[in-house]
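TEACHING EXERCISE
Course module: macromolecular assemblies
Task: Read the component lines below, then compare them to the predicted structure of the full complex.
Student: A.B.
Group: 4
Components provided:
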Amino acid sequence: MNPEPFFQLDRVIHEKGRLTIMSMLAASPELSFTELRDGLGMTDGNLTTHIRTLQQSGYLSVTKSFQNNRPLTTCAMTAAGRKAFANYINLLEQIIRQNKPE
Amino acid sequence: MESNWAAEHLQVIRTLMERSALYRRALAPIMIFNGVVGMAAAALGWALRIGPPRAFILFWAGVGIVAAVGSFLLVRRQAIKESESFWSPPTRRIMQALLPPLTVGLMVSVVVWARAGSVPRGDGSLAGMLWLPLSWVVLYGCAFHAAGFFMPRGMRLFGWAFIMGGCGLFSAGFPDWARPLDCANGIMGCFFGGLHLAYGVYLYFTERRRNET
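Instructor-supplied answer key:
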């Protein structure tokens, strides 16, 4: 068995919390902080930490605005994030293929 | 072992991607509102004897506008309450899915409305035009079936109920003794009032529980 795909997995995305955030954003052009928090059942602090990590890696862009005088934070996946996420899924598929019995 | 967690990861990704693409606002208030409007309008149309095709089309177009505006306001209120944008990606997708069949319904109504005036005795009776409310029912069902791909699964079944009901009545026809005015308003009341109300009540009791799980 070739272990290489496993070692190529992006560690930033591979963490469970961040993977769920990336998955949600992969299907939507953008999601608000509230939508992500409620959809994933995370605490505000936990979600903020993960978003910051993904943002620092250049995978997410965060926009802060106001809606009806209330702050609105929206997250969207960047082009680099989409590429990294697609690559991550390709590697997972490779791992599954490799381990499939002939 | 390694392929197991990889497959599990892919399954989680797939589930989350589906969930984030779905429209998750509470639909019960919208359905109940539309049901009440539909029932009240059918009763009003019957009581006011709105029988001439042109008047019937205008009356139900007005009801449609009231229902649409009311639904938008309810959605907007939910969005504001949850500090979310009203025009979210799932809302956009749903509007895109709803639009083609509803546009066809509008075009058919405009053409029938225009022709009704030029045909001799065209303003006289709904007798030959019962296919119109049935076509509205079927097209509305098609619209909701299409939107159902971005909503909870029940919405597609709701669309099918309109489609099958409309097609069934269309093929069964109406007995000779049935009065067209009663039939036309009855169709609108049963489908746009009754079905919405029934589904709204069902959602009222199930939606919150489903969202909590």
